Amino acid sequence: MDFYEGFAGRFDRLMEWKRRWHVEEPFFRAILAKDGALSGGVRSILDCCCGTGFHCAMLARMGYEVEGVDASPHMLEVARQNLKDRELDVRLHQCDVKEMRPCRAFDCVLSMGNSLPHEFGDENLLASLRHMHEALRDGGLCIVHIENYDRLYADGDRFIPTRFSRTRDGTEAFIFAIDYFKDRVVFNILSIIERDGLPQFNVDVVEYNPISLAKMHALMREAGFKDVEVYGDFFMTPLKESKSYDAIFVARK
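RE: above sequence
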């Protein structure tokens, strides 16, 4: 959570909403429509680790009843403002996913944006997945997006593509450097945000648990999920054919 205290205000500059919306909305329309045909429809969605509210906003705008959960008060503060600015009614809760006790059952539960690997230790990962499972109605849908750490480690790239943008307000650049260890992967994020000719530099460091695909499969099954499918990107490309570093798990209670 210390990472997000400093980074929350810069997060949406890095993960720009317009670009994400363009890529992810068709994915969710396809997945949720497919699930609706199988199980009678999706109306309610719980976004676990909702961050600055991107998926809450997108899914609410698509017509779903959405609630969000996040452990970081700093990310929730940004999320509330983002939702207010868009005049969207979404309930947000500050809570650790592995400790949450929803008072209702949802048709769909999400954990997007490589959020689950913030947890270290199989017991914590399993606790998070079990609480997501408990938050679903029978037959409900679970979607979990993580990095494809198998491929990331196999490639071993030290630097990943920089995001650079120039607007009338100024210039922004984000540079990533990755440190690989057996039990963790460290993302070092250098951000350079220039306004009125004055650059501001920040370095943010965050550690992730490099969960293998096989481990993720096993944990989801142990948590009670079934019919687990994995896509390699938001275009629903089969994992083995994808060239991205995404792994999107779709399963059912």
